[in-house]
Structures are given as C-alpha cells and as structure tokens.
Amino acid sequence: MNRGKCSAGNILVVDDELGMRELLELLLCREGYDVRCAKDGREALDFINSAPFDLVITDIRMQPVNGLELLKQCKAISPRTVVIMISAHASTELAVEAMNEGAYDYFPKPFNNEEILSVVSNALKDRDPRDELAKDREGPLYFGCLIGESPPMQKVYELIQKVAKTSSNVLITGESGTGKELVAKAIHRQSTRRDQPFIPVNCGGVPEALIESELFGYRKGAFTGAATNRKGLVEAAQGGTLFLDEIGELSPVLQVKLLRLVQEKTIRLIGDTADIAVDVRIISATNRDLEKMVVEKTFREDLYYRLNVLPLRLPALRERREDIPILAHYFLTKFAREFGKDIHKLSSYAMDILFNYDFPGNVRELEHILERGVAMESSRMILPDSLTLSLYKRKQQDQSAAPEAIDIPLDGFDLDRHLAEIEKKFLQKALHQTHGTKLKAAQLLGITFRSFRYRLLKYGLATEDELRSAED
Ligand SMILES: Nc1ncnc2c1ncn2[C@@H]1O[C@H](COP(=O)(O)OP(=O)(O)OP(=O)(O)O)[C@@H](O)[C@H]1O
Ligand SMILES: [Mg+2]
User: Fold this and answer.
1) CA–CA separation, 39 vs 54, rounded Å?
2) Domain that holds residue 363
C-alpha cells in the first residue's frame, strides 16, 4: 500500500461482503485515497494497531467483532481516526448509539456513491489540527495522543513501543504535566493487553484505609460499613494494566501490600483468608525522586526495584523547546474550535515569549495558557497581552525579589554598584533568551529600545559601532 505524502488520506474499508469491499475500494481509489480492506472487525483492529488510518468505513453486523465494537476500540487506539458506519439493517437506535460512540456519520445501505464520497472528503477536511501539523514532516509528529517531534520525544515513542511488547513493570518519571498518564495509556494501547481494562489509581491525596479497600477490595463485614463483598481495582484490572499514579505517596503499610502483589501476583481481600491470583501489568508514575526516597528510607528499596524494571523518563518541556510551537499551535486550534473563535495563529512576539518561557507546569501549563489566551483574545491572532504567564511573572518577581545571600557589612555597602551588577545580569539574560535580538530583549524587560541601548553601552555589553551596524 502506498502511504506517500500525495495521498488524499488513508482509508480502511471493513465489510464482510466482498462485493461491498470491492465497490468502496474502487470508488475511493479513484479519488486518490490509499485504501485497505478488512473482512471483519478483528482483522481491522490488527491493521489499526499496526498503523493508524485517517478514516475507517465500517459495516455494523460482522463476526467476530462487530462495527460498533470496532468503532469503540478504534477510538480508544487512535482517537483521531474518523469512523463512518454503513449498515443494511438501518435503525435509528443503532445510528444514535454509533454517534454517541463517536462515529462521524451513518449511512443505510444501499448508499449513494456521490454522497459517501462527499462525506469522506468533508470528514478529512475537518480532521484534527494535529493532522494539519503533520503535513510535510519527516519523523512522527505525534504518537497516540502525544504530540512532539523533538529527539527526546522520538526516544519516548521508541521506548513506548519497546516496553509495550513486554509485560514487565514500568516506572514513568517526569515533572508534573509532562504527560505521564498519556504515556501509560499509550503503552497499554500498544500492548497485547489492549483489549483488557486499563485501571488508573491515584495513590496520593486519599486516606490510606480508603486506598487499601479501593485497591484490594473487601469481604462483607470486614469493617464497619462493609455491607457487601466488593472487588478491588487490582482485580478489576485482571488481564490488563494497573496504572498507579503518584506512587511516591503510598504509605509504608500499602507499600508492603503492593510488594506482595508484585512478587507473588496474588492479593487478599480485606477480611478474607484466601489469596486470589491476579495477572496485571503495573505501570507506576511519580514526579518525586524515588531513588532519593529509597536512600531516605521513605520508599522501600525492594518495591522500587520491582516497579522500576523498565524506567521511562519524560523530558520537561523546557528540555524540548522545539516542540513548544507545535504544541502551542495544536492547543490554539483546539480551543479556537471549542470556543468558536476565528483565531489561527500566535503573533511572533507571543510565540517568542512562549518559546523562552521555562514552563514549570510543562505541557499542562502550556495548555492552560492557550486556553486562557484564546478565551481572552479579541483580535484574530494571539497577542502577548492575552498570555497570562502567571507563574512566569511570579517566577521573575521571585527572582528579582529573592533575598541575595549578602550580608550588609557593618562599615557600609555600595548599593548602586550592587544594583548595577544585577541590572547587567538581566540585560545579558534577556539577550541570551532572545538570541541576541535587542528589540525583543527590550520588550522582555519592559523597557524602551532606547533605554535598552543606553544600558548596553553603559555596561560595556555593546559598543556604539556594534549597535550602529546592527541597526543599519
Ligand atoms: N506530549 C503531549 N502532547 C499532547 N498533550 C500532552 C502531552 N503531554 C501532556 N499533555 C497534556 O497535558 C496535560 C497533562 O498531562 P498528564 O496528565 O499526562 O501529565 P502528568 O505527567 O501525569 O502530570 P501530573 O504529574 O501532574 O499528574 C493533559 O491535558 C495532557 O493531555
Ligand atoms: Mg498524572
């Protein structure tokens, strides 16, 4: 199959009738689409798992795995794929169910060829903004729901594919908002467990007793309030993946219980005497330094090694700045559509500000900045004024207000000299952040270009000649 760049889109046709597959293949190929055919839902899922499609046209009644099931699983594996349903047994209920599950359109058979081609063409035009971004790019720009084409993200994609092939436990580390949960889901979806449950559990911020009963379940009468038997989340994840988020928050008692699960692959319900065998793959995540916690003896070493069989570290956004414009554009388009606003770009100065910002809250923070930006912007372009970098401002203020490690000597102190040194450092930093663009550096510092120029000369950071030749 040709998946060249000139294709109008990759389409998968799924129908158990050979005649229908051939008709659709012919129609779509003539329009320049790359078409692949599958004879049932299961075969279609195999294809989708190996490479996502732009669009799937599927029959509903098929064995094994019918069209509705295929729709659900296809949306889970590849949310951006457009799915169009066709059925000879048209019913309003089926149509409504398909739409609720995320189908793009629904056609009763026999359908009008022109009509289906026009819906396909419109659907591909309305594609997710990520697909627009992907045009004319070499390496993968995104993977599942993850966006980013920087070398550190390419490494992450490779690792996800590698670890997905195994059932070993994975520990995902990375600062808050770097996408740990998205990565955990991507691993699950790529693994052989993808048809089984993915169960996330947040180990932080919930009382120990509650997590224990949530995780392991209990027998009726095990404690006051245990009116019936209740299965825990570990058992619910049977055959699938258990995602333990914020694992560093787990109490010592629960660490022991978890160790037992990891080592023996059994659990015991609270109030029970017998063990239950479980087969779960454990993916844990933390933004804390677990190794340090092991040294400080707040996290069990044996558990740490058992969970960290395959480590996966997510880079902070500032370690992959080249992804900032792509992500910013993606979120801009997403929120502009959501809020019904005609905004298509960020001004180059606004983009520059984002590019130079350190994002302590990583991708989540960028997402929030764009959400607020789109909501506040009244022009057709995001301007710097609409970017509320609250943390950024706070960080800068903190820096300037940070009590320097200085003691004022008893015999006096040269305040002017000290302030001049600080000022010089800010000028240098601004120049560095703006790659030497003086106008932008001045804007970053909130001073006029004239004043910036004057200060550069004052501190010997540039000569008259240099400034003049730069302005020519
Ligand atoms: N590479 C990425 N591409 C697209 N969206 C992303 C990416 N990384 C993170 N996000 C988005 O950023 C937000 C935070 O991601 P996620 O919840 O996975 O982070 P996290 O690392 O689990 O954070 P925390 O440690 O705070 O729980 C989500 O809305 C997610 O969709
Ligand atoms: Mg998280």
Assistant:
1) 19
2) 320-400
* Average per-residue pLDDT for the chain: 85
Residue with the smallest CA separation from ligand 1 atom 13 is: 364
Count CB-CB contacts under 10 A for residue 247: 27
Query: What Cα–Cα distance (Å) separates residue 245 from each residue in 6, 56, 97?
Result: 42, 34, 33
Q: Work out how many domains the chain is built from and give that number.
A: 4
What is the C-alpha separation between 290 and 172, in angstroms, rounded? 11
Identify the pLDDT of residue 371: 95
Atom of ligand 1 nearest to the CA of 367: 12
User: Is the same domain home to 109 and 170?
Assistant: no
What span, in angstroms and rounded, lies between the C-alpha atoms of 75 and 79?
4
Confirm whether 134 is domain-assigned: no
- Are the CB atoms for 249 and 204 separated by under 8 Å? yes
Is the CB of 364 within 6 Å of ligand 1?
Answer: yes
The verdict on the CB of residue 176 being under 6 Å from ligand 1 is yes
pLDDT per position as a tens digit, 96-132? 788 878 888 888 888 889 989 988 988 887 665 555 5
DSSP 8-state class, residue 311: E
Domain edge (last residue) among 127, 160, 176 = 127
Token couple for 201: 């559990």
- Ligand at minimal distance from the CA of 200 is 2
pLDDT given at position 133: 52
pTM, rounded to two decimals: 0.62
Alpha helices in 296-410 (DSSP H): 301-307, 324-338, 348-356, 362-376, 390-401
Report the CATH number at residue 228: 3.40.50.300
Residue 136 lies in a domain: no
Residue 133 Cβ < 6 Å to ligand 1: no
**Does residue 139 form part of some domain?**
no
Q: Reply yes or no on whether the pLDDT at 388 is more than 90.
A: no
Distance 168 CA to ligand 1 centre (A): 23
49, 78 contact by CB (below 8 A): no
In a domain, 39, yes or no: yes
Q: Write down which residue in 77, 92, 127 finishes a domain.
A: 127
d(CA 113, CA 117): 6
Question: What is the pLDDT averaged over residues 398-402?
Answer: 43
Q: Which residue has the higher pLDDT, 282 or 49?
A: 282
Overall average pLDDT of the 305-330 stretch? 94
**Which structure tokens are listed for 2?**
């040709």
- The answer on 327 and 307 residing in a single domain is no
Q: How confident is the model at residue 206 (pLDDT cuts 50, 70, 90)?
A: confident
From 173, 364, 366, give the residue whose CB has the most ligand 1 atoms within 8 Å, as the site to mutate.
Answer: 364
Looking at per-residue pLDDT, the higher value among 74 and 413 belongs to 74
